[in-house]
Amino acid sequence: MFPKDFLFGASMSGFQVEMGYAKGDLDPNTDWFVWVREPENLINSVVSGHLPEYGVGYWYNFPTIHKLASDFGMNVLRTNIEWSRIFPRPTYDVDVKVEQTESDITSVQIDERALRELDELADKEAVEHYREIFSDMRKKGLKVFVNLVHFTLPIWLHDPVAVHKRQETDKLGWASKRSIVEFAKFAAYVVWKFDDLVDMYSTFNEPNIVSQMGYVMSVSGFPPAVFDTEKFFATFVNQIVAHARAYDVMKTLTNKPVGLIYAASIYESTNSDAELEESVGQFMNFAFLDAINSGVLLFQTREDLAGRLDFLGLNYYTRTVIQRSAQELSFGLVNMNWSIVPGYGYSCQPGGFSRDGRPVSDFGWETYPEGLLKLLRMMNERYALPIYVTENGVADARDWLRPYHLVAHMYAVERAVEEGLNVKGYLHWSIVDNYEWAKGYHMRFGLAETNYQTKSYNPRPSMYIFREIVKELSTEKFRSYLSSPYQIWRQKG
Amino acid sequence: MFPKDFLFGASMSGFQVEMGYAKGDLDPNTDWFVWVREPENLINSVVSGHLPEYGVGYWYNFPTIHKLASDFGMNVLRTNIEWSRIFPRPTYDVDVKVEQTESDITSVQIDERALRELDELADKEAVEHYREIFSDMRKKGLKVFVNLVHFTLPIWLHDPVAVHKRQETDKLGWASKRSIVEFAKFAAYVVWKFDDLVDMYSTFNEPNIVSQMGYVMSVSGFPPAVFDTEKFFATFVNQIVAHARAYDVMKTLTNKPVGLIYAASIYESTNSDAELEESVGQFMNFAFLDAINSGVLLFQTREDLAGRLDFLGLNYYTRTVIQRSAQELSFGLVNMNWSIVPGYGYSCQPGGFSRDGRPVSDFGWETYPEGLLKLLRMMNERYALPIYVTENGVADARDWLRPYHLVAHMYAVERAVEEGLNVKGYLHWSIVDNYEWAKGYHMRFGLAETNYQTKSYNPRPSMYIFREIVKELSTEKFRSYLSSPYQIWRQKG
Amino acid sequence: MFPKDFLFGASMSGFQVEMGYAKGDLDPNTDWFVWVREPENLINSVVSGHLPEYGVGYWYNFPTIHKLASDFGMNVLRTNIEWSRIFPRPTYDVDVKVEQTESDITSVQIDERALRELDELADKEAVEHYREIFSDMRKKGLKVFVNLVHFTLPIWLHDPVAVHKRQETDKLGWASKRSIVEFAKFAAYVVWKFDDLVDMYSTFNEPNIVSQMGYVMSVSGFPPAVFDTEKFFATFVNQIVAHARAYDVMKTLTNKPVGLIYAASIYESTNSDAELEESVGQFMNFAFLDAINSGVLLFQTREDLAGRLDFLGLNYYTRTVIQRSAQELSFGLVNMNWSIVPGYGYSCQPGGFSRDGRPVSDFGWETYPEGLLKLLRMMNERYALPIYVTENGVADARDWLRPYHLVAHMYAVERAVEEGLNVKGYLHWSIVDNYEWAKGYHMRFGLAETNYQTKSYNPRPSMYIFREIVKELSTEKFRSYLSSPYQIWRQKG
Amino acid sequence: MFPKDFLFGASMSGFQVEMGYAKGDLDPNTDWFVWVREPENLINSVVSGHLPEYGVGYWYNFPTIHKLASDFGMNVLRTNIEWSRIFPRPTYDVDVKVEQTESDITSVQIDERALRELDELADKEAVEHYREIFSDMRKKGLKVFVNLVHFTLPIWLHDPVAVHKRQETDKLGWASKRSIVEFAKFAAYVVWKFDDLVDMYSTFNEPNIVSQMGYVMSVSGFPPAVFDTEKFFATFVNQIVAHARAYDVMKTLTNKPVGLIYAASIYESTNSDAELEESVGQFMNFAFLDAINSGVLLFQTREDLAGRLDFLGLNYYTRTVIQRSAQELSFGLVNMNWSIVPGYGYSCQPGGFSRDGRPVSDFGWETYPEGLLKLLRMMNERYALPIYVTENGVADARDWLRPYHLVAHMYAVERAVEEGLNVKGYLHWSIVDNYEWAKGYHMRFGLAETNYQTKSYNPRPSMYIFREIVKELSTEKFRSYLSSPYQIWRQKG
Fold this sequence. Notes:
Chains A, B, C, D: One of its GO terms (biological process) is carbohydrate metabolic process. Four copies of one chain form a homotetramer. Chain A is built from 16 helices and 17 strands. By secondary structure, chain A is α/β, with parallel strands linked by helices. The longest helix of chain A has 23 residues, at 229-251. The two termini of chain A are 17 Å apart.
């Protein structure tokens, strides 16, 4: 049984759902907007060629989507406020008090005056529109979970094409320290403007993915797609500091919880190599979070970072199966002695079965629900924080796999709750099909199908299952999915 | 839109759902009970080896299943009364008035005395139990649709093993004319005993399949599995006459409608050979029904058969794709100049796609929803009768295909209604997984999944779709299924 | 290494290869000729509908095929003399001396007079034609391996349709004891007429398959396809006695070796159930051979049967995977407590992989080369006889699988030789594609492809491999096939 | 029929086959040697991680491989001389006479003195070793076809990592004009040193691929993998000029033919868009060759380039299926209005079938033999030159597809010859499996399988077919492959 106050809902992001009519809802001021139409990316097929402006249309249709959420039993929705919409032009000139050591920014303070100056720079229409969105959520009985940055950055802060081409630019995104200060301004402003309508905040969605895909996996289609281990570390650290500084300014303005959303996975080796699993998992899952929770940043103690987390958001899709490499790769600071094993986790052929016999999504991701339970146990043990599953779902246009997938993962959460873990909510990715970054409209993650022509949203069978689980506060009714026809993991879990 | 009084429900049959606990619910007195445990069938894998007595358990669990029907929006259920349960021993000795010509039985009359004698032979506990079942249906708001024979015959009337082995026997089932008389007694007795609880009757379910599978397709696993074209014709004609005689006696006792349920298909040729489609379809779809509707039995006029149909029940699963044979096969009376083309209709490899790119069920049956609309148009044009779709569904353990299948077929029915055809109801096969004859428990046709261990019945996602369609009286909400991802047949239909 | 005198060749059978032009080469006088055009079989698709008279055309083209054999390194060919061609009419009236006990025929003696009477009944043209065939084999450097019965029987001896329909008939084939006497006559006559041209004889090809497919697996398409355990045992025993009586008369006329060809398999259980493997293997592999080798016929000692085997021919295609049944089936004399596990051995889906990951042929047969080595060890240990692999091959139209299959099985034989087993030859099934019984021309077993229109025979790549192995007397050159890409069985073998 | 003097052989390249023992045969001085161990490439999986130094081992085992070629009927082998082996250090300081216009190098002259200076710089052991290789070829009856550059460049001429990272470097490979001069020196030196052993020369292998993969398809794994349309054009033009200057100096030293090897394809649109096929094919197939044949370089007439081709080498693997794009992409000078259609040509899923039902290789390349005939007709019509098919083959580890593939493509060549086209030879790619660039040892293109552990080379079945075709001078014997089981293209071709 889930408790009565458990949060059930879905997550979205601005860039992925807002645009749709390519008119008043257009936001051309993000790095991603530029990135998905860059010819180099198109000719190399690292982006889909789909245009985000012909998408879901949430900017105008939010009441319909909120009603859908409400009708199907949800009590929370997460989305983010697009920085570029609020501040389509730079905020550099707004003066704020910054303290820094030789190497880092240790404090940013934003006073009333600064907030007023920001207000002058802000797009008032956009502010008002987001207020309408959040008001409507509340009206429909949905808690409002606001995230600040979900991948996209204002184009005045990050020019991904210039960085990719290694051209001279000062628009370096998270690779530049000054982004930290601007982010603190944005964060403070959001709280100042929206706090009456918000239930909980997070600063970042998956900052680790931003670093990893942007600066290491340089053929993945993520901006700026440049292999640069220095920039990888810079963005990794700068996002940590940016979170802490934003947290500080936000908490001067609100008592509501401020958390962070992390992309976690379970690292399993093919030959039960516990040492390898430990060392890889340590970096991939804990290094970032340890910094903002315990103030340990890569072996260094940083009091200015510690204790900056009111809750932990976890996005979980599948495991990662790894093995030791024959040869160690050396990248400046880092040596890498492991690699990913194809045929498992994120590295499967779409649509079939993994090497373990588990069903694989349209994206090529393995269904591995026991990993979610494992993850919740692990995170609960390490961090004394309330945990929300902030993303979990499956790209499955035909809804073949989603009924099983949904039940199995919600069962994992239910079980975690029953074990006494401090898990407070489950937000599915996503309520409706939307723009899946480099894959565009090819990947369909919605509980409801989006018809992009008519802007209508049709519940898939899974959505009825979701409603039923929420109504019963239990997966009990659908547990037959757990034993057949794919996997009997209940015994093993 | 469906009209408000449209019947939405499901069909079952006694042998397929009643037994489950192998105790008080056991009925060992049918030909099929013997047939599925006959060693020759087992060693040749023409039957599954599954035992019907460990099945659904409807005999005791009917209230649960009726509640499920009611909860998910159904307003009618069809099942049959097992002849063998009511009369476990022969009824030959009950004297009734039979008139016959040289070749056929033209009248059977059953008076009160005969009914009382039958009553003495009847198993009163079984009678009472069926009354409880039907009463409960009514209590749950379900119309009671009672069928008389659904494949099984009492073992005292049909010894399928003896017939198969061509041993001397007088238990010939429908190959013997005296079965006609006994059936009339059974039919009369049922009306006499149950009429207060029944809304509509049918005499037979798929009599054409009984002849075809039993006496032609002799490796199909249907009793008595003997290739014998004379017996094929005898059973074909005797079931026609049996229907007419039963209809006559029933109508002396009730005003409720008496119909018949026919297994129909759409016959399409690979090269648009209209003449072939016409001639094959003529025999396969119309020969039986013409006899009891218009009194034309294979070129002969028979007034004693005409007008014996108050409504027509149609079971539709898929089409049949045919071609002319290189050589004509000669079977005594009949020459056969066509054959079935593999890769379409009933002749596909399970689980993949047909040669036309349509999804195929676990049974190897092609999804062909436009065939249902075509069939309804054709039948409506030929027979001025109310039509019920009395079976339609798909073997799909994982419910991958059923959401699409269900919506597409219900859309076909909705469209038929909108075209003004006299279609009155849609009964899905089936409400819960059950014993699929020669395939046993391998094929799962339920809107709800049957857990055979715990005797619990878990709604699959499709069942929520069914409920939604019934609620809205339209498939509108789910029409996105019709265009993707399989087929855009809406334009073509 | 194979020894220099090792026999390398191929096997054929008369019915499967002789006809092709449907004129002078036609032999309509066999049970199989009738069987494959019987309407009941056609409409049930238990036979292919292909006509054997449009086949390989060996009757006229034998020189081409013998040249092919010779060009590709073969030194032996096996075929059989069609009984029905030599004696198109009954030989009952030729008087011979028969001794019998109450239950069995213990001796048949055929003197010069009887042989002359047979000669008058024989079709002299057919005799002469077979002599030409064998002479040509010799001319091309091929040893002549003559088999007497390869499934087909003269229609005057076996009416499969009557038996199937359980009609009264005295044409019972091997179910009748008098077939034993007629077979002895045929055998004696063959030796008397052809001995100067023959190198080795066998009486029967796969008598166990004749019993099993004909009288138990009654939907398999083998005549007479009637489930009858008494006839099963009768044919089993009568073929044993027929072999012994034929052996006796043949040995009075020749010193050349007389053997028998048996369809063997390896019986493996899914759970290493040694007791089950032992008991099933005992009956399936040894019961028949024990009788004619050791004189032990189903627990009874029979001196008149013992020692009637000069060599043992083994046909091997794949293993049989078995399991204990939940329930024991009882068939009169026999109880059967096991069943075949689908997904292995003969019970796979065509064209993919078995549940063990081994490649599967067009026929649905698993590639299991280690079984051949296991079989040779087992048979060599039990019987102190020279062994020939008389059939082994794969249905593989595209020659995708055959290169691996051929090398792996010939490697098994080579290894058996190196272990000191008394293995003397390897005859591939087959040299050219031919008529595969119930499957007709669908299954292509040839090292060369038969073009049935032009009657030309094109070597497949495998045939070049075969030639190379024969030339080198070793599979060494091709052993890379053994480790990749399918199976590393060399280490395990 | 092929003519008696037709060249049948195979192609190799130095980098792909020479190394194997990682000792005396090691050549670490190429851009590719560095490239395949660059961490960025490894972590992104754009290279295989396989090391070329554990490869075929041709440097020492050339006699074995030459014998294999000779044993299987070949009369020619092509390989290249690795520039980096002959000149492991820069040749810049050797003074030669260069004439240039404002924009281009129009003449390079290399006199005896310069050749002697080059000789001092050259690695004499390497020179001697290549002479042994070519001598052995001749001894085995193989014509010696020497290519100069097959993708690899000396590391002193091209630093792919620096270029990729857009670091300052003067080692720009073909993007720098001075590479033209150094190449002329290398070309002259090769002729001066090896001409007595060589039968025919080519300057480049697939210069178009070097430009396209290196500077446009920047995620393909080809160095330097940088999207740069200016460099794309520079390398395209500089290779043209380099060919012409090398041709000039070579012809002062030899009378033997000097050609160039081009990677050609057939461009087909999905909707028979002749205009699109024409315009795309024009650039992709003709722009480079027109320059060195007719002196037309991108609309400019260049007499210093015209007539520099004695023969044309064509590498053909499959077609390219294209369609007009919805949007035109603009890349500086060029607008691109078309894109490649997935599911055909090079863009298939490995191992299955293309959208046209044609078998697909391990590499994901469609089998499209009619394209080769189409190509030969097209090239023969445009250029009045002898044509050699210098590469054609298939990645097929199991030799499932190669028999068909080989016969179908050699049939295309045979037919071209019979139509009177000036086609002189067919060189298969390749004689043995080797290092397939970014795919390493994963792709197996050999007629013989390379065992990389033992350095042995086992002929696959296809190699026997190749021998047979060469012996018969015709594909006649194997033409059954053309009609079954894949495609009947003979009628259509």
